[in-house]
Amino acid sequence: MSYAIIGLGKIGTAIAHAFAQQGIEVIVAGRRPVDALAAQIGASLVPKPIEDAVKADVVILAVPFAVHSDIGRMADNWQGKIVIDATNAFGVPPEELDGLPSTAAVAKAFPGAKVVKAFNHVAAATLAQGPTTPAGSRRVVFVSSDDDAASASVAALAERLGFAPIELGKIGEGGLLVQARGRTWGRLIFQDLVKFD
Question: Which keywords appear in this protein's UniProt record, sorted alphabetically (predicted)?
């Protein structure tokens, strides 16, 4: 399975560090050159243009919400791919999303993809501290999708990265807890929860 992170802002960089800590190869791409930052983070990061990154089996979307549709247009076919939506649509009026949860709106830009919401609820600075806390607990990552197999696959990836995944169910059900609606944050956003093994 191949992985790509599109966007090396604060969230994308934090996720890239988690990949590097586990030595998992991941393509990284951004709207600006990412080669120097990738080299600084770790040897398992492979910088490539976005046009190549969208060919990965699992694409982590860590760009501003407003540009998600631009990324969606960069692949001819999203069929069978998993797109992890790590964006937040805070401040976007619900009517601009046709009343849909933001991840369901994102899914429209990636036809054929299995879209999973994950890695968006923890503040970037907290996520950058890594999956393990000084107390030895694991940081929780919430996962939601309308595709159960894709949700399980992303939960397994989060586990492999060292996080403690918790599946919330469907995007329009439990997944609403980690999505912004207008100028209101979902109830679990910014909650730095941990699991003690």
Answer: Oxidoreductase
Question: For residue 144, is pLDDT > 90?
Answer: yes
> Domains (ranges, CATH) in the chain?
3-195 (3.40.50.720)
| The amino acid at 13 | T
How would DSSP label each residue in 150-190? HHHHHHHHHHHTT-EEEEEE-TTTGGGGG--BTTB--TTTT
Question: Could you give the CA distance from residue 164 to residue 57 in angstroms, rounded to a whole number?
Answer: 22
Q: Is the pLDDT of residue 104 over 90?
A: yes
Instruction: Say how far apart CA 14 and CA 126 lie, in whole Å.
Output: 9
Q: CB of 176 within 8 A of CB of 109?
A: no
Contacts of residue 64, defined as CB under 8 A and 6 or more positions apart, other chains included, come to 7, 9, 87
Beta-carbon contacts of residue 105 (< 8 Å; ≥ 6 apart): 89, 97, 98
Distance CA 196, CA 103 (A): 29
